[in-house]
From TrEMBL:
Protein name: Bifunctional protein FolD
Record family assignment: Belongs to the tetrahydrofolate dehydrogenase/cyclohydrolase family.
Domain Tetrahydrofolate dehydrogenase/cyclohydrolase NAD(P)-binding: 139-280
Domain Tetrahydrofolate dehydrogenase/cyclohydrolase catalytic: 6-120
A Pfam family it matches: THF_DHG_CYH
Binding site for NADP(+): G165, R166, S167
Function: Catalyzes the oxidation of 5,10-methylenetetrahydrofolate to 5,10-methenyltetrahydrofolate and then the hydrolysis of 5,10-methenyltetrahydrofolate to 10-formyltetrahydrofolate.
Subunit organization: Homodimer.
Coiled-coil regions listed: none
Catalytic activity: (6R)-5,10-methenyltetrahydrofolate + H2O = (6R)-10-formyltetrahydrofolate + H(+); (6R)-5,10-methylene-5,6,7,8-tetrahydrofolate + NADP(+) = (6R)-5,10-methenyltetrahydrofolate + NADPH
Pathway: One-carbon metabolism; tetrahydrofolate interconversion
EC annotation from Swiss-Prot or TrEMBL: 1.5.1.5, 3.5.4.9
GO function term, MF aspect, one: methenyltetrahydrofolate cyclohydrolase activity
């Protein structure tokens, strides 16, 4: 039997509708959730991401501001910019669009963002809190993945989850979140031996590599939940995931498509974190 397709686009739309209502209710109490995004330089991909984030904020009523700075800004100037946002009570979330120009130390910049406003969840202290299971803003893509699995109605606890990829923005944090949900977690990467042997044991398979269709149907355990984070382009220029979707959906029980799976959840969780930050700052 064919797998149930986890439609991230629909889940994201539902969540955004609920957030829109929450923002309206907060505004009635005199609280207008605000997100400030700093964009340094003119990287086209970064510009496009920032534009999508601003549009999404506008759609649900979050006050968003994009602070554009030239690529030759000094690290000191950028840090001062962040200090100003940290002190501004109308700003609840701060996001610095990465990558930054080479002369700026990304770690120093992320470190400067107030923990209470770290809606991207990339501050080293937020990462540490995630590791020890303390309250923190969860990084948006991993958070969106957990939300998709939970909303499928399937249990995570006790399952063997295999995460392929160990980046700081997806692989590692999603593995930690699955562990927090009481899955037994394996993390695979480019040096893993016999990857298919491992993925075939996965009740939950999360792939975050960026290699078009490299996970084949025969590498998937029958009935597995398959979450495809990869964004790749195939030989015909089509956007595809890490998983060979058409064949895999005949083996899996649940599967996310690319596009329309994990992707739409990322910005949604950023909106969610910004609303949460506004609530926490106002002790709600
Ligand atoms: P990344 O930093 O490039 O990490 C890729 C990971 O894949 C690395 O850990 C790497 O292992 C591993 N890897 C590479 N080749 C492998 C192989 N043959 N077998 C097993 N593991 C292999 O990428 P990322 O930032 O995590 O992103 C991963 C993918 O997700 C990309 O396609 C990206 O565009 C997409 N993405 C999507 C969203 C979204 O919102 N949908 C968000 C973020 C990322 P090593 O560590 O050993 O090098």
């Amino acid at each position: 039997m064919s797998a149930t397709i986890i439609k991230g686009k629909e889940v994201a739309a539902e969540m955004r509708a609920a957030l829109k209502e929450e923002v309206a209710a907060l505004k009635e109490k005199g609280i207008a959730p605000g997100l400030s995004v700093i964009l340094v330089g003119d990287n086209p991909a970064s510009q496009s991401y920032v534009k999508s984030k601003a549009k999404a904020c506008e759609e649900i009523g979050i006050v968003s501001e994009v602070i554009r700075r030239d690529a030759d800004i000094t690290e000191e100037e950028l840090l001062r910019e962040i200090d100003g946002l940290n002190e501004n009570p109308n700003v609840h979330g701060i996001l610095v669009q990465l990558p930054l120009p080479k002369h700026i130390n990304e770690k120093s910049v992320l470190n400067r963002i107030s923990l209470a406003k770290d809606v991207d969840g990339f501050h080293p202290m937020s990462v540490g809190n995630l590791v020890i299971g303390d309250e923190c803003f969860l990084p948006c893509t991993p958070y969106g993945i957990i939300e998709l699995i939970k909303r499928s109605g399937e249990e995570i606890a006790g399952k063997h989850a295999v995460v392929v990829g160990r980046s700081n923005i997806v692989g590692k944090p999603v593995a930690l979140l699955l562990l927090q949900e009481n899955a037994t977690v394996s993390i695979a990467h480019s040096r893993t031996q016999d990857l298919p042997g491992l993925t075939r044991q996965a009740d939950i398979l999360v792939s975050a590599v960026g290699n078009p269709r490299f996970i084949k149907a025969e590498d998937i355990k029958p009935g597995a939940i398959v979450i495809d984070v990869g964004n790749g382009v195939d030989e015909n220029g089509k956007l595809v995931g890490d998983v060979d979707f058409d064949a895999a959906k005949e083996v899996a029980s649940y599967i996310t498509p690319v596009p329309g799976g994990v992707g739409p959840m990322t910005i949604t969780m950023l909106l969610n974190n910004t609303v949460e930050a506004a609530k926490r700052m106002n002790r709600l």
